[in-house]
Amino acid sequence: MGPARAPVPHATIFWNRGYPTPRFACKIARPFVFKSPLLRMPTDPLPLPTAAPKRARAVAGQAKGQQTRAAIIDAALALAAQLGLEGLSIGAVAEATGMSKSGVFAHFGSREELQISVVREYHQRFEEEVFFPAVAGPRGLPRLRALFANWMRRTSIEIEAGCIYISGAVEFDDRPGPVRDALASSVRTWLAALHRAVVLAKKEGHLRPDADEQQMTFEIHGLILALHYEARFLQAPGSVARALAGFERIVVAHQPLQVPSEVPLSTAEGALPNAVGVAAAWVPAPAVRSPIP
Asked: What percentage of the chain has pLDDT greater than the value 90?
């Protein structure tokens, strides 16, 4: 038999009391103890990384996404005013915004969702320009006049650009679906607000007790529809002035013989002060063609 093999050196780790530095002892020919400061175990736990930077990045990403979505809706709203809701497409909006189709699609999963978002944005702007300023005024006939004046002011702009409520009604009147539902809901909401203003005018005594609120609402709405047809389609001069005169005839026909003191006599007898300038300044212009082929 050959000579006996020497034992293989191996290391053992042990700890000093109260001192967590590892010490290695190797069983070799001349034992020694090696103490490394690099292997010192920390007595206090390391602080965990905070999640604040991640949250800040997430909030910044959401804000940027909302800004991009708002820019897409603005471009889509401008296209819809010229081309109608049916003229909207992911490709047309991508071209108008300078984005890729996939970028637009990431914010709106379908063309239908884009159309509905445009309808909601249009309704929100309509309320901010027409409804809320009028509601801030006094109740009764002054509020009804303010509603119609604001409506006429917006209509004078839409004569050139187009009204999504009116063009959308032509496009989706016989096409059931979510887009038609969104359009109809927006129009009903506005007509309900107009009807409410007529009812309050009657309660304040600014209209006769036997005044038909539904009929007045119907006739006032009809003036706006006729104005769009006459001014935008036929480009007939004087359409705005005729709409203003029609509103005054409706109000006077339903007023009591003696106008209550809450309504200034000049306002009750004269034309709408905020909309007369619109009638005098508006001149029919040629139809604007869309820059998108």
From this structure: 37
Q: Residue 250: is its pLDDT beyond 80?
A: yes
∠ CA 142-146-149, nearest 5°, is 135
- In-domain check, residue 209: yes
Query: Is residue 83 included in any domain, yes or no?
Result: no
Domain that holds residue 147: 111-281
Q: How far is C-alpha 72 from the chain's CA centre? A: 11
∠ CA 282-155-177, rounded to 5°: 150
Predicted model pTM: 0.65
Closest CA to 99 of 119, 69, 78: 69
* Integer CA distances (angstroms), 194 to 144, 172, 189, 198, 277, in order: 7, 23, 9, 7, 23
DSSP type of residue 142: H
Q: State how many domains the chain has.
A: 1
CB 60 within 8 A of CB 49: no
